[in-house]
Structures are given as C-alpha cells and as structure tokens.
Hints:
The chain is an all-alpha fold. It has helices spanning 2-33, 37-40, 55-63, 66-97, 101-113, 118-131, 138-163, 166-174, 179-208, 211-216, 225-229, 241-274.
Amino acid sequence: MRTSTAGRVGQYAALLGYLLFLAFPFLWLVSTAFKSPRELGSPHPTWIPRHPTLDNFRQAFDEQPLLRAAGNSLLAALAAAVLAVLIATPLAYVMARQRTRLAKAATGWVVVSQAFPLVLVIIPLFLVLKELRLINSLAGLVMVYVVWALPFALWMLVGYVRAVPGELEEAAAVDGAGRLRTLVSVTAPLLAPGIVATALFAFITAWNEFFFALVLLKTPEKQTLPVVLTHFIGAEGVADLGPLAAAAFLATLPSLIIFAIIQRRITGGMLAGAVKS
C-alpha cells in the first residue's frame, strides 16, 4: 500500500514538473509583456512585474501594423480551415469505408507524409506557385496551408467516420439513399463534432504558421502576424523585448483559447482512429 501511494505521488510530482516546464515560456512571456524597460534591463529579473505597465502594448501597435497583419492571418487561416474540411470530409469517408488495398495504402501515406520536413516541400511548392503566378498572394498561401493541413485533417476525420456505426448507412441504403445522400444526410450530421474539431485545428495551424508565410509573402501589406512579429528584431539581432513580448502574447491568445476548447475533441478523434472495427 505504501509503495502504491509513493508511486502515485511520484507520478503526480512528475506530471506537475512537466506542466511547469511547458508553461514556463508562456508565463515568462506574460511577465515580460507587462514589465517596464527598466525592469527588462535589470540584472535580477522577477516573475511578477514590480510596476506593471501597458506601454509595451501601445508601443507594439505604434511600431508595427499588427491589426492588418492579424487580418491577413485571420483571412488565410479561415479560408484554409474551410477548404481543408471540404476536401478532407469526402476523402476520409472513402478511406474509412473502403477496405481495399488502395485505401489502406492511402491511409499509410497520410501518416508517413506527416514526417516530411517543411524544407523538403518548400521548393516544389514555390515553383508550382510561381507557375500559377500566386507568389506574394494570400490565395497562394491558402493553397499551401490547405495542402499542409490535409494529411492531419484526413487522419482525424477517418477516425471519426469509423466511429459512426455502419448499420446506419446500411439502413439508409435499404431506404434507397445513394452514397452521396447517405454522406450528407446520415453521416455528416454525426461527424459534425469531428468536422468542427478538424476545422479548428487547421485554423490554429495556419494562424501560427511562419515559414511558408516568410518565404511566399514579400509585400509588407500582405504579411501575416507571425512574420510581422520578427520586425521587432533589429538588423543586428537586438530585440525590442517589451513590445515583442506584448505582441507575441496577443498573437498567442487565440490559439490557446481555441485549443483549450477543442483539445478533448482532438483526443477523442485520435482515440477513435485507434480503435479497430
């Protein structure tokens, strides 16, 4: 009994330490965002600002077009999320319901594609967008975000589709419904939670993405929020720490709020995909 209790205490202690390790960067970011320049230059930093100030937030909005950049990020992320779900839903349905070798190979390819690094695909994507004359455009960036989000969206939605009882679709077929009618009227309503979770995950991915936006967008008016945040770093690599922390804190809030809402649904989709029918 004592061994079991000691083991449980050790597990909780390890979990608490891990949570603190993960939370440390965000907590330090919040602390930095509200510190005065004098405190930021202090050789003895503190967790809690001695004299909290909002000057960093005012300076951040004065120095960089954060609202315009946030609008670009919002437009690109929303468009990418909607398109990714529209494309992934019927594909996931086919992959989940068809037990052929081709469907299994497609599922395996989806999983393997997640291991591809960004550097491996950026040059082919750049050349394709150049031929389509979509370099330095939000439309081209949305296309890249959709392509990048599709594998994970398919993986999530396949799990949700497999969790829907096949007997419901068989009953619809007996009543004379075709595949498309069954998908729209029977399966899609049951997939609504999974579709919402997948769309929100695609939105978060696009909202936080930096590398593709940095390479593909050249005009300042079209740059997204993660790219604009780098403008707080000078040519010599010296960061304007206070405004940078304030802007980064504001840019992080949407992702944290959305992920806190959907994290249970994401976990449920992953577990559903791991269950063999």
